[in-house]
Amino acid sequence: MAFHDDDSSDLGRAGQSKLESFLFSCELSSKVPFYTFQGDEEEDLEHFLELRTVCLGDGAKEESNVVEVTAMNHQGKTISVPIANLHIRCLPMVSLGEFELKAPVTIRLKAGTGPVTVSGLHLIASQVEDSDLSEEDDDDDEEDEDEEEIVPIKPAKKKKQ
Hints:
Elements: E1 2-5, E2 17-28, E3 34-37, E4 45-56, E5 65-72, E6 78-86, E7 93-102, E8 105-111, E9 116-127, H1 130-146
Antiparallel strand pairs: 1-2, 2-9, 3-8, 4-7, 4-9, 5-6, 5-8
C-alpha cells in the first residue's frame, strides 16, 4: 500500500513524500526477551514503526507480562515506556491504536515469560522527485482517456393495455 502525504506545504510539490507500509510482527518470550527495529541505512528514507496490538500467545502462564518500548523522544534522548501489562485472565490483548515511533525502536518483555506478540506496520517515508511526480500525473491522464463515459440506462416504458 502506498500513498502520497501532502502535509509538506512550505516545500511545494517537490517536497512531497511517498509513504509505504508493510506488516510488522515480533514475538517476545523468556528465550527472546527483546527485538530491535532498525530500518535500512539509506539516507533518503525514514523508517517508522506503528504499533497496533500487543497480545499474549498460546501457552502464556498466569502471570503479569509487561512490554516496554525504548526510543528517542522529541529532544533526541532515549527513553523507555511501558506500553502493556497483560495477564491471561483479565487482559490478554491490548490495542494501541496507531502508536508511531521513529527507528531505532527496541521492544522488550520487561516482566513475565510470554509469549507476547507485538504487531503493527513498518512505514517507510521517502521524498518524491519532480520527475516521479510528472510521470505519475501523465499516468493519471492516460487512465482518464482510456475510461469511456458511462451512459445511464433508462427504464423501459410500460405498454398501455
